[in-house]
Amino acid sequence: MKRTLVANTAHSAMIIGATLGVGVFVAALAAAQVPTSSLTGLSKCKFSNAQTCLTSPQTNPLAAALGLGTFKRGAGMCSMMGVTPVVVNSGSTQPAYYVPISGEDAYTTSNLKNKFSEWDVANQAAFQLDCPLFYKDQILDQQKDYLCCTEDQYRTMQTQYRMIGGLCDVSKQVLQNVWCNYACHPSQTLFMDVNQVHWYPSSTNASQSFPAIEEATYYVGDDYARDIYESSKGDLIAKVLCSPQAGCNSGLGLLKKMGEYQFNGIGSPNQVNFVTASSMAKEDKCSCDGNSPNASCILPLDGTLPTCAGVCGSVCAASPTPLAYTPGCNHAKTSGTTNWSAAPPMDSTWESLYEYMDEPLTDSSAINIANVVGCLVLWALVCGALVYVYRNIQPSNPVETQNTSLMESLVSRAMASWGSFVGRHPIQVLVLMSVVAAVASSGLHRAVIEVDPIKLWVAESSTAFQERDRFGKLFMPFYRTSQMILRPKDGGSIARGFVLKEAIHLQAKVAALRAVDGNQDVGLDDICWRATGTACTVNAITQYFQNNASHFDVYDQHDLALGHFENCLFTPAYADVQTCQKLAAKNIVLPPTMS
């Protein structure tokens, strides 16, 4: 599986907010470009280690000289819009433009397509699916129309939003909502600061440079962050991103992990610092009632979140009872209920499954105790019976010792006779036992290795199997496949490096096979099934290395091949994030075909 597919879920969760789509080169963005020669007085970048960064662009006087515009904190104001054309590795993401502008001005003055009501109908419907919580809160309830992201930007974000996976829809929606607000909230500046801007030279004209966000700060309410973790901590995606074993066991820890700087790698192309309201100075925060003496106060992002309790069954680890909730603004009132809202309506198709998953586990403690007690009672009865026989039944042979039981005497005489016989006739006994063992094992010659997976799932006499055969005869077999089942010659596990590599070589030989049908040269590509309309569909473990031995070698050289294989085998969507991070930490240059 390609790197972007192996790590797709964790990759998307970390970069959605920073990936703002393919920017449209309109006047507002082009105006931000300046001659590279005029970039003086800049400082060292905190994370990329370049020397062309502007620190505190919101208040730095140099920002105006560089044409960055004036930052204003308030409703309807944006901090970023568009994606810089920075050249990055295939599969990596680009940082966003720093463009302090109001959403309405971006539409009316700069002709950006950030007015949601004028988006294509199909894109509006898709956005509703990808950002359901944001859509309900900002577009339906508050009737916001000017967003801080454009339609073109959303089309690029769309695939990445949908790559955020999970076993529970609620946890997926909650994590998506974090980045939907980051990218598109119509009042970004209320809860966001841009700490550093990195000037990148244009790849087509090095004499011009453009501003990309190097570091940003995202302010959130404490209980809002807590509820994000509550709703997702039981799902595998949160466990991958925020492992309790690594000391990550809170909403803030999960958010910080997603915001880590991973330019040209798997993760956010710029640093996103998450800060909770409790760590902010009181005078820096806005009042909940809107009456704040500080016009540039910060209003940490808060909002209603659905709860997975009662919806996602055992996948949900959230508290079944509502938690006390306090907004992150000043003069907030603590309520007795959480900010959780009702979960989205459940599809009736899955209702019975979720009800079954939500049933409490049966407590088998009483049954286990009863079994132990029963065994002890039975043992006591057996011991009592033996004691009774020992005390009341006298041996029939007066020569035998009075202290020996009848059963022991019989067994002793039998074993003595057998031992004497074996001692006198060892060869005959060995031959006899060998014959008995051979006869008992003779049935093994009829053992066969089943190579039809269908027969492993259902009996040939079952209705499902017979109906499958009947429809296959009437309409030709459905989902026709050709299968090769491999097993190591030594009978060992397939989870060994040399076995996997040999399987990859065999798959390559199969793909290279050619046959002549009349005057036509036919290969696998000519007859295979193409599920996506592109490459042949090959359902094999070799796909975890893209059927490419050189890809396998990349992992094998760093003792990561088996770990990568196991991660892909169990949860191919996102369990391999740690393996990819290990490769990135070693500065491994991946082949272009793995991107």
Automatic annotation (TrEMBL):
NPC1 middle luminal domain boundaries: 469-574
A Gene Ontology BP annotation from the UniProt entry: sterol transport
Keyword Transit peptide: no
Localization (cell): Membrane
Domain Niemann-Pick C1 N-terminal: 119-326
Transmembrane segments: none
MF-aspect GO terms: sterol binding
Name this protein carries in UniProt: Uncharacterized protein
Any single GO CC term annotated in Swiss-Prot or TrEMBL for this entry: membrane
Bilayer topology annotation: Multi-pass membrane protein
This protein's UniProt keywords: Membrane, Transmembrane, Transmembrane helix
Taxonomic superkingdom: Eukaryota
